[in-house]
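Weekly sync, protein design subgroup
Attendees: M.S., D.O., the rotation student, P.L. (late)

Item 1: inverse folding check
M.S. brought a backbone from last month's batch and wanted to see whether the design step gives back something sensible before we order anything. D.O. pointed out we never logged the input encoding, so this time it goes straight into the notes. Structure tokens as presented (242 positions):
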């Protein structure tokens, strides 16, 4: 199998891949050989299974992430793609599979862009609030080359507890549109709730075991020895007068 190549410069991110004819359980062997499994797909494009050298792929992915344009070189063709739907190993977190989404550079597309929290919130640092991130991704519509790598959320505007930042609060951009509900909450500050421990004041009454229960459990029961009742001596009968 021909080793893939990569090129990183100011204009293009290039990644050379080769067609893949291995599927199923045999893919494990390719991964052991330092390959990453991929698939090229897109509108009006026949899906194509490919493989790339993992080191070359990672050099490009480290820069492009999932929002940067990468040019896939295959069979003397260059295909502009976005690298999406990454599958990772559950333990090592190593990338195992990637989808290369073919895009038309002249048309707008919709994709998800990660949220990045910046700034310091006075409500958190000075008033003891807890910052909750309620949306880590936002749907963006833009031309592929105008997709931002992330959407920055400045939390320095959060001064008090129970304040929040919604989609409607974000600044408008000429290069892209956020396709989310305007009232969708991205981050908020809530009051810190301390768990109170209630001391246990109730006591369990001692268990009283009756004699019948002892017998039922097989415990020997001491029999009460009854002492014979002593008969009281009767006074002698009085003799009658003669």
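Designed sequence read out in the meeting:
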């Amino acid at each position: 199998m021909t080793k893939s190549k990569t090129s990183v410069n100011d204009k293009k991110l290039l990644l050379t891949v080769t067609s893949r004819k291995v599927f199923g359980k045999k893919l494990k062997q390719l991964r052991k050989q330092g390959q990453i499994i991929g698939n090229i797909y897109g509108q009006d494009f026949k899906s194509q299974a490919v493989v790339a050298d993992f080191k070359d792929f990672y050099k490009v992915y480290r820069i492009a992430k999932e929002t940067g344009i990468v040019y896939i070189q295959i069979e003397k063709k260059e295909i502009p793609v976005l690298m999406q739907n990454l599958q990772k190993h559950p333990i090592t977190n190593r990338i195992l599979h990637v989808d290369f989404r073919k895009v038309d550079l002249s048309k707008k597309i919709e994709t998800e862009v990660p949220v990045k929290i910046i700034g310091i919130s006075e409500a958190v640092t000075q008033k003891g609030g807890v910052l909750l991130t309620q949306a880590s991704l936002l749907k963006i519509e833009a031309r592929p080359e105008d997709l931002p790598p992330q959407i920055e959320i400045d939390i320095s505007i959060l001064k008090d507890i129970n304040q929040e930042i919604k989609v409607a609060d974000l600044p408008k951009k000429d290069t892209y549109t956020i396709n989310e509900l305007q009232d969708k909450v991205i981050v908020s500050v809530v009051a810190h709730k301390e768990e109170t421990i209630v001391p246990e004041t109730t006591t369990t009454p001692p268990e009283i075991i009756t004699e019948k229960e002892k017998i039922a459990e097989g415990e020997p029961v001491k029999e009460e020895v009854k002492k014979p009742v002593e008969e009281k001596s009767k006074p002698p009968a009085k003799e009658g007068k003669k």
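Discussion: Residues 6-103 form a domain with the Ribosomal Protein L25; Chain P fold (CATH 2.40.240.10). The chain has two domains: 6-103, 110-190.
Action: P.L. to compare against the previous round before Friday.
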